[in-house]
Design goal:
2 domains; globular; three-stranded mixed beta sheet
């Protein structure tokens, strides 16, 4: 198949390549819908088997593809998770306004409007943000959106956290709630909670985790008041060297993170406290979630 792709790539012009790509995409969706599809009830059953329970605090990371096999709308996936955790549970998602680095985003002098700035973290997060019951934290760099019993408590005070993923942030609060991380069709390497782990082991790093001075962003709050908020950002070296798989691979080996497939979708569930324990244990023996090979003596 790869040889065929290379051959076609060398013989077709751009328009032909685009036509072929579109046709292959249509064929793939038909195949998935026919042989690898699943319903909301199927997803609900899987989440329960994985360990999502009534009253849980869940941080959900997601990606939505037309070929994931789910027979429903993106909104239906959110409904399933909310139904499983119930009225006493809390569902939280990231809602950052950028896909680049925090430094690049803040360098553009953006206005973060907590009520109107869209999430760039995928269609599920933006759909979730627009729900009437959703509350969003006042963090220009790492805002979370939450619905549920603990939602308001989770988001309160995020604008006062100089380290947006550190102490007193929603991530530390979710840890207190024994929060679970749920990954829907997204590799278990992009979990934002890793920044909390990094903060805890920052003194063990052979380089500086944060820049020496915070950066400032303009925030528009729920009352339409504009004010500046400061936050520390990661150094370029930390961003370049980050290697989250050191933690996630260890969790998979040890059975503290659970992978399941349903239809054409991969689901991963892991506890935050297990991720933190793994990160701290590895750091204690010099195994850090960063590529430090050229820095070792």
């Amino acid at each position: 198949m790869r040889r065929l792709s290379l051959l076609l790539g060398s013989t077709l012009n751009r328009a032909q390549k685009q036509w072929l790509k579109t046709r292959l995409g249509v064929a793939r969706k038909i195949w998935v819908d026919q042989f690898h599809s699943y319903t909301a009830d199927d997803l609900r059953s899987l989440l329960v088997r994985l360990g999502v329970s009534t009253g849980d605090s869940v941080l959900m990371h997601s990606s939505y593809r037309a070929t994931n096999g789910f027979r429903g709308r993106p909104e239906d996936i959110i409904d399933v998770v909310l139904d499983v955790i119930g009225a006493q549970g809390t569902l939280t998602m990231m809602s950052m306004a950028y896909e680049s680095s925090t430094r690049e985003y803040l360098g553009g002098n953006p206005l973060f409007d907590v009520r109107r700035t869209p999430s760039r973290m995928g269609i599920l997060t933006e759909s979730f943000r627009r729900r009437r019951a959703a509350v969003r934290s006042l963090s220009p760099t790492h805002p979370v959106v939450s619905i549920g019993a603990k939602a308001q408590w989770l988001v309160d005070g995020h604008d006062r956290c100089p380290y947006p993923c550190g102490p007193q942030s929603p991530f530390e609060k979710m840890l207190e709630l024994d929060g679970k991380m749920l990954f829907f069709d997204l590799p278990f390497i992009g979990f934002t909670f890793v920044h909390y782990i990094e903060h805890q082991i920052r003194e063990k790093l052979p380089f500086t985790l944060y820049e020496s001075a915070p950066m400032t962003a303009l925030l528009r709050d729920y009352e339409n008041n504009d004010r500046h908020v400061s936050a520390y950002v990661f150094t370029r070296e930390a961003t370049r060297r980050r290697n989250v798989e050191l933690i996630t691979n260890a969790m998979r080996r040890e059975g503290t993170a659970h992978w399941k497939r349903i239809g054409n979708t991969q689901i991963v569930l892991a506890r935050m406290r297990d991720a933190l324990a793994t990160g701290l244990r590895l750091a204690a023996v010099g195994e850090l979630p960063f590529d430090t090979r050229d820095l070792r003596p």
